[in-house]
Every structure is written in C-alpha cells, then in structure tokens.
Design a protein that fits this description.
475 residues, alpha+beta, five-stranded antiparallel beta sheet, 12 strands
C-alpha cells in the first residue's frame, strides 16, 4: 500500500514526540535541560533524514528538468518509464504526478520545437524561391540571415547558404563589411534608427544594374532589406520614352507644314467653295489637335526621363495665381468663360516658376473645357491659394469649376496618361488626355501632392500643395 509524503512526515513527528515524552518521564524533574537537548538532537536527526530522503526522491526529476531543453523526447520517455516502474521511495509516491506532468511538458516542448523547425524550413524555402535578394540584420547591423538570391548577388558568392558561414554573406559579420553600396547601407540604417520603412534606388551595387531597396524594421529589433532588380523594367521604360519622343519629334515637322498650308488656303476665302472651306477647317482642327498631342508627349517624355531640370526658388503664391490668370486671358475670351481669383496668400512657395505656371495653366484649361453646365453658356473657374499646416507647412492651390463634376469611380484614375472620363466630349474639346498627368508629375517632382474632389452636377476642385519657402525673400 502506498504512503503519501504527508503521512510519512506525520509518523516521524509522532515518533519524535513519543521519544521526548518517554525521555521526560524517565529523567528527574530537575534535569529538564537534558530533555531539551534530546528534543533538539532528535529534531536535527529527523531533519537530516527527511532532507536526504526528499533529495533522493526528487533527484531524477531535477536531472530530467535540466535535460528537457536538450533531449525532450528522451526525457519524456525516461520519466514516464520511471513513474510506471515505481522507482520512487514508498513515502514519496506523490511525486509520481509531478513526474507525469514533467513528461507531458517535455513532449509538448518536443512538439513545439519540431513545429518551429518545420516553420523555419518552410520560411527559408519560401525566401530562397524569391527572385528578390533578402537580408536581415540585428540592431547592431550584424547579418542574421540571407537568402540564396542574396548569396548569388554578391561578388564571390558560392551556392552555400550564408547561415552556414561559408558564403560571401556571413552571419555575424557587419553589413558594411559585405555590402559597400551607400544607398543600401543608408536605407538599412534609416530603418534601424527611425524604425520606419525606407525606400531608395541604387545604381552602384552592381555595374549596369538598378535595384529598388526596401528596408523595414523588425518587431524584435533589427531590420530586413529587400533588393528588387528593376534593370529590365527601366530599360523597357527608357525604350518606350525614347520611342515616343522620337515619333513625336518626327511628327512635328509634317504637322507644322500641314497647318501652315491649310491656314494659307483658308486665307483665300473668295476662291473657296463652302464645301472646300469646311474640309480645310476640319483638317486644320485635327492638325492642331495632333500638334498639341505631340507637344504634350514631348513634355511627358522629358519629365519622366528627368531631362527637364527644375530650378526651384521662393515665389509668392498670389503672384503665381495672378500671372496664371493673365496668361489664360486669351483662352477665356475665346471660350466665353469667367475666370476669377479667390482667396490668395502672399506666402512664398519653394518651387520652379515655369513648372507651377504649367500646372496652373493645365488645370485652368481643364476647368474651362469641362466647367460648363448644360444650362449655362459660360464656364466659371475660381483659382485660390491658402496656407495649411498639416502634415507640414504648405501652400494649397485650388482650381474649382462648377460643371457636371466627376463620378467617384473616376477620381482615382483621372491623373493617369490618356485616361478620359467622357471620351466623346474630350475629342470634341480637343483634349489630349495628358494635361492632368503632366500636372501630377510636375507637382510631385517639386515635393508636392495633387488630388481632385468632385460632386456630380456641382463641379470639381483640383488641389495641389507645394512646400513653403523656409527663408522668405523680401523685395
């Protein structure tokens, strides 16, 4: 029959009390100190005996607990075997439940470790299958992991994994010792220091290659960087831009000739029949539209290829608005439009004068073309400029019309090239579909933002923001 630990201790205490009582009865009353010494001695002996017994009983559990992290599967099997075999002393059978609980915990740890290893292998296989190079560093900038693409990317790399320490990208080495490119190092350092996502482009990591770098902080510290090879994409885009620019340039000469000859023929109205005059007017209209399209394509090609150099400086916002209104006065008279100046500020913006004028001109022209309602003969356009402080100090330019407006589903795409909300109306008005795209590129190239707000049958408002000049210039 099994005895519990508490029953064993109770029996020992009873035996000790009986021994003390017997000793006190045999000794004289005056020899009480001998009784005290006997009690102390017996208590010390009982304590040593109990300590030794408990120590012997839990020593297997201590050894199992110490080895559970190294050999959880062996610990589980050994502990269960000990519990079932009855190796515990008869007075310490209560430890059997602790032994079984420890065996269960060991089995769970073993299962968790296997799952963790399997998840790590799956993650490594997933990252190795990527076409992008991936590398992770700790908070001190030391390499923690890299995929095979990163290994093959670096000069002198072998097919072995960096985690094995045999490739050119080695775990524990500083990132600056492996990658010398300043853009990559600056992007990773920014992610480590500011704990924000950093995006940059590098053209010096490998000769003839262009990489987009995206570095993100990791929750536990450190950062992970992804290098995406965009060389092929940029080559295709460059070829496309060159093709568009060359074709547009070649079309300018014949279109100019056609326009000139048609205008010359139209000057001799007395010798033209009404039918001939109608045909020549149609030719002139379409040639003019083609001329505008080629001009816009050339401007777009220059902007996207960064060939157009901007020269920003401090310019008062109110002077930009008034100058744009004055420049569009001819179009206003020809189109029977009302062009008004709303609230303006004299705060200076840091921008390129010609670029801002082109943006305002494109938006005003767009408002004049599409700002006329069916019930009104005139298009009304209001241009304004005001200061804003969110997300930081900027000047907000607004060009508002009171036309039919733009449906919500089109607002996200109207700044794309050649996108038209109403294709039939755009062709009738001579639009090229590039005005808003040019405006967006011009604004973003100067560190600004542009967007549109609209409500059907209530008009549209095009809004672009430019940074203010930090050091205003006074006349």
């Amino acid at each position: 029959m099994k005895r519990s630990f508490f029953v064993t201790v109770f029996l020992r205490l009873t035996l000790a009390m009986a021994f003390v009582a017997g000793t006190r009865a045999l000794l004289p009353q005056k020899d009480w100190y001998i009784t005290v010494l006997a009690v102390i001695g017996w208590a010390a002996l009982a304590a040593v005996w109990t300590t030794y017994s408990v120590r012997q009983a839990i020593s297997p559990l201590e050894r199992a607990a110490g080895a559970i992290a190294d050999r959880p599967d062996e610990v589980a099997e050994g502990t269960l075997a000990q519990a079932d075999g009855g190796d515990f002393a008869p007075g310490y059978r209560d430890f059997e439940r602790l032994s079984k609980a420890l065996a269960g915990a060991a089995a769970q740890v073993d299962q968790s470790l296997e799952q963790s290893k399997e998840s790590r292998r799956e993650l490594e296989a997933l990252l190795d299958s990527m076409q992008d190079a991936v590398i992770a560093v700790d908070a001190a900038g030391r390499i923690q992991w890299s995929n095979q693409r990163m290994q093959r990317l670096m000069p002198g790399a072998s097919s072995s994994r960096g985690t094995l320490g045999s490739g050119s990208v080695r775990v524990g080495h500083s990132l600056v010792q492996t990658i010398r490119d300043p853009e990559v190092l600056a992007c990773v350092r920014s992610a480590l220091d500011s704990r924000t996502v950093c995006e940059r482009k590098s053209t010096t990591l490998l000769p003839g290659k262009t990489f987009e770098i995206n570095a993100s902080p990791m929750p536990g510290g450190g950062a992970v960087a992804v290098l995406h090879d965009v060389t092929r994409i940029e080559q295709v885009e460059r070829t496309q831009r060159d093709f568009v620019a060359n074709v547009s340039h070649e079309l300018r000469t014949p279109l100019t000739s056609i326009t000139g000859y048609v205008e010359t023929l139209l000057d001799h109205e007395e010798s033209l029949t009404p039918v001939a005059r109608e045909f020549l007017s149609t030719i002139l209209k379409n040639a003019t539209r083609m001329n505008r399209l080629t001009e816009d394509l050339l401007v777009m090609a220059r902007i996207e290829s960064t060939e157009q150099k901007l020269h920003p400086g401090p310019i008062p916002a109110d002077s930009l608005v008034r100058e744009a209104i004055e420049a569009m006065s001819g179009l206003v008279q020809d189109s029977d439009a009302n062009l008004e100046i709303g609230e303006v500020t004299s705060r200076q913006v840091y921008a390129d004068h010609d670029a801002v004028m082109q943006v305002l001109s494109n938006l005003i022209e767009n408002g004049i073309k599409y700002g006329r309602t069916r019930s009104s003969e005139f298009a009304r356009v209001v241009v304004s400029a005001s200061e804003i402080s969110e997300p930081y100090e900027m000047v907000e330019f607004r060009v508002r019309d009171f036309g039919q407006g733009i449906a919500f589903e089109h607002l996200g795409r109207i700044f794309e090239r050649f996108y038209r909300v109403d294709k039939a109306r755009s062709r009738e008005s001579g639009g090229t579909g590039l005005g808003l795209a040019i405006a967006r590129h011009m604004v973003e190239a100067q560190g600004g933002t542009i967007r549109a707000e609209s409500e059907l049958h209530r008009g549209s408002t095009f809004i672009f923001c430019l940074p203010v000049a930090q050091y205003p210039v006074t006349n």
